[in-house]
Amino acid sequence: MSRQHFPAAECQSRLAFARHLAGQAGSLTLRYFYQTDLAIEQKEDFSPVTAADRETEQFLRQQIAGQFPNDAVFGEEFPRTEGTSGFRWYLDPIDGTKSFIHRVPLYTTLIGLEYGGEITGGIISAPALGELVWAGRGQGAWLESKQNPHPVPCKVSSCTELSEACFVTSEVLTFSKTNRQNAYRNLERSVKLTRTWGDAYGYLLTATGRADIMVDPQMSEWDAGPLPVILEEAGGCFTDWKGNRTIFGKEGVATNGKLHAAVLQKLQAESLP
């Protein structure tokens, strides 16, 4: 994308609006979070969905349409809305619905912003933990938290050896469901620590240097929407398993950058060492 045609001011105004929206959406999800009688439905792909997912996405869509009516919106729970402005929003109202319905505070709300095929802004909000990470292209990645309400820079870890790395993922069974159990075992046997602090919170941990590697064998564009800009602005890397810099690869790998080639090699190996 030519820098002279890059609408920096419009990107910045949308990112500022998205940060405001994320806070409001977080408050909305928390109304449902501690409900013990929350109704749970099953979607066609057998994944769970709740009123909190749908109401939060509706809220986000309504706010975006009111402020930027010509922008396109792609979300998890409702059909896409096409636009004419060149901007596209990616929304995942509750990433980690399984955590949410078990009242585990690692769920997040995701907002990604794209212009001209480039992810220009992204937000990962973990409202139950009081953490929010945001990034804009060329503006760095930043963490806001209950302990530190003023934004502080996000920086990935300095780990250079797989044998010293912390690897996080979402649900181990997903590797088997996608016939990638060897990939999981290859990587697990190579690292120091493996945990399932996953879904988008795993990417938040990687962007803030608390984990070194986050891997998903299955994901959608609304899951990945904010991740490239957040990881890259924090000094790291996000790709699919082939190393392509895309949110449409149906899979994801985030690292501190230094470990990326080694992680891809482990994931691409077809058999156990």
Characterization of this structure:
The protein has 273 residues and is an alpha+beta fold. It contains nine helices and 14 strands. It has two domains: 3-153, Fructose-1,6-Bisphosphatase, Chain A, domain 1 (2-Layer Sandwich); 162-268, D-Maltodextrin-Binding Protein, domain 2 (3-Layer(aba) Sandwich), CATH 3.40.190.80. Helices cover 33% and strands 25% of the residues. The strands form three sheets. A seven-stranded mixed β-sheet has the order 3-4-5-6-7-8-9, with helices on both faces. A five-stranded mixed β-sheet has the order 11-10-12-14-13, with helices on both faces. A hairpin with a 6-residue loop joins strand 8 (140-145) and strand 9 (152-153). Helix 5 (181-188) crosses helix 9. The longest helix has 26 residues, at 8-33. The radius of gyration is 18 Å and the shape is globular. It starts with 7 loop residues before the first helix and ends in a 5-residue tail after the last helix.
